[in-house]
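Query form — protein RagB/SusD family nutrient uptake outer membrane protein

QUESTION: What is the three-dimensional structure of this chain?
INPUT:
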Amino acid sequence: MKRLILMLSTAVCLLSSCQNYLDLKPKNQTVVGTLEDVKLMMSSYLFSLTSSDGYPIYFNGVAMHFPYNRDAIASFTMYSDDLDMRRAIENSYGRKYEKEYYESTDWKSSIFSETIWNNFYLHIGYMNSVMKSLGELLGSYEQSDFEKIKGEALTIRAFYIFKLLQLFAPYDNNELGIPLNLDPEVIEGTKRLSQQEVYKRIIGDLTEALNYETANDTWNVFYNKDIIHALLAQVYTFKAESAAKEEKDWEEAEKHSDYIVQRYQLAQTADELKSVIRPGAAGVIKNPHCLLTLGWDITPRSNSYSFWGLPQYGTGQVVSPDLLATYTPGDYRPGLYFYVSEEDGVMYQKFEYVTWTLSDYITLFRVADMYLICAEANTRLNRPKGKELLETFKKSRITGFTTYNGNDVLDEIIRERRKEFCGEYDMRWLDMKRLKMAVSREGIDEKSQQVKTYKLESNDYRYALKIPIESELVYNKIPQNPGWN
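ANSWER: The structure tokens for RagB/SusD family nutrient uptake outer membrane protein are given below.
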């Protein structure tokens, strides 16, 4: 990873008058001198996660917003098997993503991979700068202030590092992790660490934050014990079947997910689930069934409804037929997630945007995810609790459900994950990767404009995204992921 030079300038509206702005000069010109400066660095960043285009924070000359916006979610959905790719760009809303579509039908999108790579490393660089500045003030502040700021930075950075590892590291090759430079003063590019080395950093940072004695403050977003437990549950789940796996991974996944299961209830009705997937307002949104939702009023691509369209007018994204077939009678999710049109088919209506108020949002660390992770971990550990949790989950989604009588509890848990999280950022794509799924689907060929069959093999090289050439490999001589050369 090439060095991210510390250059901060913001136009963040910190007060209602919008007159006070943060302006931190390059590191070699102005030293961050007080704890308040560092607090402002962090609070400005957190503000930027849910701010409009009018008040961004800049780092290295780039306006920073949360990386998983609707553009990324559209690409993840096109990479998954939850969409009818034959019809994804048949209307004006879908056609705004036409270029990404033709790259995604065969899972070879350079636009997608380069955007993800650059954005996540940009945010990691900012967190490095926050922690570097905080470290230079050692001894000049209360421990509680230190833990609130560093706990926030550690958790956010660990989340971004984990996402890069999930997306860009081949699942079966421990030696090919990701490059990782955590020192903003280091200029040289860095080699690809092994996946075990990267996981050690992720888990170490999260464990450090988890062990802090200071409670989170009202301004904290990611520094929250529940969120850290949830993130650790996700980390151990993905790690447990990878080339970096260790003996206790599933036990750790069970421990951290069970921490949430013991403290939170599942949504039990369509209205309760609707409050999770359609928050209705921008900002940092609290919900008893989702540990973190971020919403903002930026309109992607100058259109409040692309890529999902307006299903009631026949311009929505069409649901994959095999996904529809997984739902059983009594399940209230199809009525909430989908819109049925006799003329146009079954379309997604899972997400709801409010013009000028909520143009984009993402639900992170859903309680449902923790229940299903806990069920999967217990099942893989041959514990009866896995089936019990599966039944608890199905009772919360299917009217009249009593007992699961099938023979494959693990397969049913994975099926529930697909039914629950369809269309939600990277959930299905990463499940496909870690479970080494083979996929066959139809899409439109760009040259012939005819329907063509595309296949993704089990453990296919395309499950590890292509490392960008112009923004990374030109500067840092690390090996490209196998298959992309």
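ADDITIONAL NOTE: The radius of gyration is 22 Å.
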